[in-house]
Amino acid sequence: MESSQFVPLTTNHSDSPSVPMRELDTVWFQVGGTICNLRCHHCFISCSPENDKFRFLSFEKCAAYLEESKNLGVKEYYFTGGEPFAHPRICDILELTLRYGPATVLTNATLFRDATLDRLQEIERNSLYSLEIRVSLDGYSAGMNDPIRGEGTFDRAIAGTARLVQRGFLPILTITRTWEQDDEEVLAKFRQLLKEIGYDRPRLKILPTIQLGAQVQRGGAYGEEARVTHTMMKNFDPMNLVCSSARLVTDQGVWVCPILLDSPEARMGDTLMDAMREYPLRHAACYTCWRYGAICSNQATMTAPTDAR
Ligand code: SF4
Ligand code: SF4
After folding, report:
1. How far apart are CA 79 and CA 135, in angstroms?
2. Which residues, judged by CB distance below 6 Å to any ligand atom, belong to the binding site of ligand 2?
3. Using CA positions, which residue lies closest to atom 7 of ligand 2?
């Protein structure tokens, strides 16, 4: 599908509660822009080989933001896209980042070359900080995964995961919930699959779908009921939301979070310092965060709270 077919955005509520910026713990880099070798049908920012709405972040820009982040006390870094390993200088960027703090890269694990993996291993070994790799996979079989992520992607991602494991990485498998079965049943099948490739104690994280971008075509857009109200925030700890402690750096400035990349209102300025302020939870996608918590981070997905309005 072409990205122009996708409905880009969603409901945008006024009179919404705001989340204060507690302190900036985490910086995300949209290092791959919206450019990806895949075109998954649930991609909430409709990434594809043709979508260059956001371009690769240059090494120099990453370096400048890393330096700014150091002065703001940032503790860790995440790299996303698009596909970060499509970026020609991703290894240089990761090597530099690991001088500042721990890093996590989100990948579809289909573009690994031996030279890249060797370099990652070397970078990780020579760093005081950890390098985490998160692999996206949406099924424990080709039949379950490939209709969403594209033909042949299951085999390629599993091969990529096995090669990471062989080099001593412990990748976190992130799986978007697209099934009707019980979660435990699905997770057991994932564990079995990963055991077969030599990954005995795999780390798994289930993500909810986000009804934006390509996923709108697949599962429909958010309805009017998807909104965060002041009442809903009364007994809710805002620290469970990524936007209370993180910001996203893109080639076009700093955004509030990785989820709202397609929303121009989510741009907060040119620098991290510009973005150190509260943000109103006015987007329908904020409702998904409220239900499931820090869905972007490496932490486990939260159980949904009571739907009190
Ligand atoms: S979900 Fe990930 S792998 Fe799939 S198109 Fe989007 S960025 Fe690429
Ligand atoms: S989408 Fe989530 S992380 Fe982004 S502003 Fe809304 S609640 Fe915060």
Report:
1. 12
2. 241-243, 256-257, 259-260, 279, 281, 283, 285-286, 289
3. 286
Tell which residue, 172, 66, 65, 167, has the closest CA to residue 124: 167
Confidence at 308, pLDDT banded by 50, 70, 90: very low
Sign, Cα dihedral of 6, 144, 109, 209 = positive
Confidence of residue 294 (pLDDT cuts 50, 70, 90): low
d(CA 195, CA 201): 8
Q: Which two tokens stand for residue 119?
A: 């370099």
Distances (CA, A) of 225 to 18, 215, 236, 307: 18, 18, 19, 11
Distant-in-sequence, close-in-space partners of 33: CB < 8 Å, separation ≥ 6: 52, 53, 54, 55, 56, 57, 81, 82, 250, 251
Residue with tokens 């009190």: 308
Atom of ligand 2 nearest to the CA of 296: 3
Mean pLDDT over the full length of the chain: 91
Q: Catalogue all structural domains in the chain, each as residue range(s) with its CATH number.
A: 3-292 (3.20.20.70)
Q: Helix H segments across 126-205?
A: 142-149, 153-166, 183-196
> Which ligand has the nearest atom to the CA of 46?
1
